[in-house]
User: Fold this.
Amino acid sequence: MAENILRMRRITKTFPGVKALQDVNLDVARGEVHAICGENGAGKSTLMKVLSGVYPHGTYDGDIELEGSVVEFKDIRDSERDGIVIIHQELALSPFLSVAENIFLGNEREKRGFINWNETNVEAAKLLRRVGLDLNPVVRAGDIGVGKQQLVEIAKALSKNVKLLILDEPTAALNDEDSAHLLGLVKGLRDEGITCIIISHKLNEIRAIADSVTILRDGRTIETLSLHDGSVTEERIIKGMVGRDMESRYPDRTPVIGEEVLRVEDWTVHHPQEGSRVVVDSANLSVRAGEVVGIAGLMGAGRTELAMSIFGRSYGSRITGTLYKNGTPITARSVGEAIRHGIAYATEDRKRYGLNLIDDIKRNVSGAALGKLAKRGWVDSGREAVVAGEYRRSMNIKAPTVTAITGKLSGGNQQKVVLSKWMFSDPDVLILDEPTRGIDVGAKYEIYTIINRLAAEGKAVIVISSELPELLGICDRIYTLAEGRITAEVPIGQATPELLMQYMTKEKD
Amino acid sequence: MATTVKDPAVTAPPPPVKHGLAFLTSRLRQIGIFVALIVIVALFQVLTGGALLMPDNVSNIIVQNSYILLLAIGMVMIIVAGHIDLSVGSVAAFVGAMSGIMIQDWGFTWWVAFIASLVIGGIVGAWQGFWVAYVGIPAFIVTLAGMLVFRGLTQIVLENQRITGFPEEYRQLGGGFLFPGLFPPETNLLDWTTVVLGVVAVVLLVASQLRGRATRARLKLEDEPAAWFFTKLAFIAAIILGLTYLLAGSRSGTPIVLVVLGILIVAYSLVMSNSVFGRHIYARGGNLQAAQLSGVNTKRIDFMLFVNMGVLAALAGLIFTGRLNSAGPGAGNLFELDAIAAAFIGGAAVTGGVGTVIGAITGGLIMGVLNNGMSLLGVGIDVQQFIKGMVLLLAVGFDVFNKRRASNALK
Assistant:
């Protein structure tokens, strides 16, 4: 490789309480396709946000060298001026504007403030042809499929004279045909001299198109492997992604497992807007009293969708399948019904879906079971404060009083408030979605202790997590999920990170 | 690792009682609104040479603004839930008109007409609530349509004429007074009914405040310094007694509408703070998804809020019609804007989740005193509108500034 177009040196990025990146180095050669791999939360997206100026210079430590000179981007426009374009996982097209308008958004073909529509549409058509898209540029972006939208994003990047194109999980939402087309296009762009960085969970894709791969784990660079000679196998990459020490980060527990509490049979869920897209595909799973069951899956595998559809159909459309509670079929068509059936779901996004951040601890704790504190519609505020106070002590929520506003608590303490809320609803089954996301190591240990306590009380606990060591450390049994299908059920005795990762990346036959 | 995670609860500090200034700044918004009302009253008292707080004028301010305050109660609840209602003025006019038709054309007795009017208000609210809650059209659109629809219906049912000559009993609600002839005139230095009411109100207030503080202290939730608590209590008691004295010395004593309003303010404050329904309103406005995922039936909440607003708008229509002894096609015009302004001046958040009944009432009184004071001074309607607009803008601007400062302090 002749020279490096990009060198990132000792990049460290800290969020309050969390070190997202620590001394990360990344070297990308000119004209190559460079893959970045790592578990969810390993720091891939953060690193790309540092590179593209989403996190401006000064909010991180370390240097970025582009084509031999140090650059200090203040924002995305700044990095785009130097030819770095990032295409995010969530597409950023405006659905009501035409494809051509989207391509030139913020970069309009104009003269003295007036848009030259002919030039806009002609240039857009040229760019679309370059990405292999035979499309009239005046159609609305919202009217074309996700695969084509992805290509429009690339056309938009090309309009900015891109030198370094960053693709974040570009094929996560695409079907096989669209994926193949997109990967072919990336190869074509490389041959035109455009360097690509591609973040992907799909290891077969990486092996097919990437020239080299850098593996991140826990915010650090682990290694960079060259893929040219074909000696690097998927197993080798997986080992780099998951291999880490696992001593005593998890409290000890002796499981006492009882009868089956919840069983899900043949559960199929469709996308709420695109009714033809299958998000969860005939899933079967069960959980017993006193058992902690893990669900492992990569981003986009349908973990949250599965959990929320079980929880009173709060996600999805055209849901089919049967829920059994203690052996008898139940219907839970609303969240209220699910709660009455003793099901609780603690969300992965506590700020958006879990808490009323402008209200205090006690009112959040009572939020899912206010009826338990009320007589004829009137709330006993005194008892509410007592109950919340008990949870504050038993869950060790660090706040001066239960009247503290939840928006001002740390992530770990917010999570404890969410867990308190669901414990107060007195469920038989708790589904915990990423219960330790974004919280520090000490608080994680406390959350694990709470999970063990719940299991010891005879609750059935389902834990969804992107962190394999976490699942291996606390679960009795683990289901793996890939593309909406349960690909394996692994007893903890047989589970290894490598085995789970294989099932999690298993493609459809 | 397993053994090194200690239980920090052991070392957790006791609830801090904030002292003096720190406490006051933490409650700046709530206190600020009351201070603003007092400053405005004092200002106009001086500017009008004492005319503002003349007994009959005080009575007048209350009656004049009663229907706006009533609407502000329902409006602040809707705003806390994250909606808005632009139709209340039209709905009040429509119900006023219907009550006139029921009495004059259909020969209903006044109290049957009252009940039927409140039912009509409830139906109107259910109609709008249906579109907002179950069809999912934004309340802004539904009630903008309602504003036109019910204004139109008012004009249709009245055939663009006004109805006057309402029965005496009907007019009591808007313009009557409590037991005017109960005590013989020679003993009537003060209106003793008013004095008794005022004293009872103060006793109840002090008792409930002391009990609340005792409960909070028992639960170790009290963060209000004792000095501040008693100053505040004494101050509020003094204001109520002062108002009692003024009303007792006015020509006719306590307006009936004040009693109605007082009961509703207390009742709705309790609903908002202590009922499951009220608490679900705050939860819905604070974070819709979190409320839904906690099993709150948010559609039902939205629906009920509009039904409630419809009934309150109907009551406002009855009071207004009774006071003017007239139901006209243009009645209640712009009431909605005064009610919305009252809620926002009173500290409700545009994004929902924040707001109190007492705040909205205070906001409504600020607008009312401004109106009355400026009218006494002979300030033209044009300038009055300008000043009221600026007050609304600055009050909400102060709110936004305050919030930004608070969130900056967190960083």
